[in-house]
Amino acid sequence: MPRMTAARAAVEILRLEGATHAFGLPGAAINPLYRAMRDQGEISHTLARHVEGASHMAQDYTRAAPGNIGVCIGTSGPAGTDMITGLYSASAGSIPILCITGQAPVARLHKEDFQAIEISAIASSLTKMAMTVPAALGVATADPQATVVALSGDYDFQFMIEELAVGAQFNRPYIHVVVNNAHLGLIRQSQRGFEMDHQVQLSFENVNSPELGGYAVDHVKVAEGLGCKAIRVLEPDHIASALEKAKALMQEYRVPVVVEVILERVTDISMGGAGIATVVEFEELAQRDEDAATAIALLD
Prior knowledge:
By secondary structure, the chain is an alpha/beta fold. The chain is 34% helix and 13% strand. It folds into two domains: 6-122, Rossmann fold; 133-262, Rossmann fold.
């Protein structure tokens, strides 16, 4: 009877189940699986910068096309806990993904040994975080011919921003529009009911980019430092041309392109629950051209 290692058997099962791509990071406890994947040679792999990012890439790889199954791989300990957020996000959206993690020997569990964490024991305590960058990379991986566009606020963009380097390394081009108001905008707006505006400002004077005028993180420099292209837009009239330029850069360099749009610092938006009758307008509705600070069409 033919014999094989457990790691090789796992890779063969992945192949038989139709898995063709995986996202993850190698480590001591999972290296046998990576060796088996290398030897088998039929499952391609994207090296993420963080295992949580890999789990979100896998999630949106599944969502991108019928029949896809996103696979996330990490080593023992923190890598296993990092992928739990992605598992919860996928579960909440009824999106099937497969997360494979290494595990320390049973004898080392519950003894505060290095990276000896019992993953199954903590899986019930979960939180959901922003994950726009890895999600876009997952879609771009699943459908390389599609034009993928992501939209983030400045704060959510800074979650897992390091994964932009994955798009540069593996040539996964997409356009990422970042609307920057240097605020936790929706959280600030929800604080109105508590009569406060507390701990929601992200602005500071960046000593390396004084031209930002207090808009804090220089997303253009960060994106370029991670091997991507980036454009900053200061005027609404320039958005369309910036997007056209971004598309050309994406096609030329085959890397993610960030389009940062600078917004007003404090602007309330319409909020409400299900149904238009529940929407609350926090600002006076524009009745004339002069009422709208950035009118895009005639109102009369």
